[in-house]
Model the fold of this input.
Amino acid sequence: MTPPEFSARVLGAIRRRERKAAECFKNATQAIGRIEPGLSLFGLTRGQFSMIDLILAALDQVGPARISLWTWCVAEYEVQCFERLMIDRRVTRALLVIDSAARQKNRDLLIRWQERNGPESIRWVVNHAKVATIESPSLRILIRGSMNLNYNPRFEQFDLDEGHPGFDLVRQTEDALPILRFDHHNGEARTASQIQAAWTDQDLQPFQTLKTWAK
Done:
């Protein structure tokens, strides 16, 4: 349960939320600016920084924090960014919510993630969401956007909010996901994601085979 005093602070922050929008041409630190309770920022970039850059820039202000990261897979050109996050000692606890099919392409990398963060640090799902959370004793930051884990020279957008109700929704969803074995069956990931609650079996039939990775 969320402590009452924390909930009151968040509600107060939402009421006085400072909404900002920025067209971003420089780095993540400059795009974010100062993170304060109630911050709500929409950013439009040219792809010069990534989701991980946003996390690292936020940690520069927040300090040691618990993080979670949602992604589809880690592309070959994203591995270095991902490994940079894995060695950051400001991350006190880390959770990765990743598509089950990533085991095909990212097996060694994901094994290293579990070795560093523990066997419960991955939730295997069917996923295309791009979300991150950062939680310190005083701040709860929710980041979401179009960007992947690396920089990408094209238009991208992101939202960064402190004290947003979406933070609790993401955390509740993460907490409800079962912990699957690394060698789980693909159907277990679909069940864990509760896909059947939104789709019929007939609707899902075309998606039963695994995606083929581009080379």
The chain has a mean pLDDT of 90.
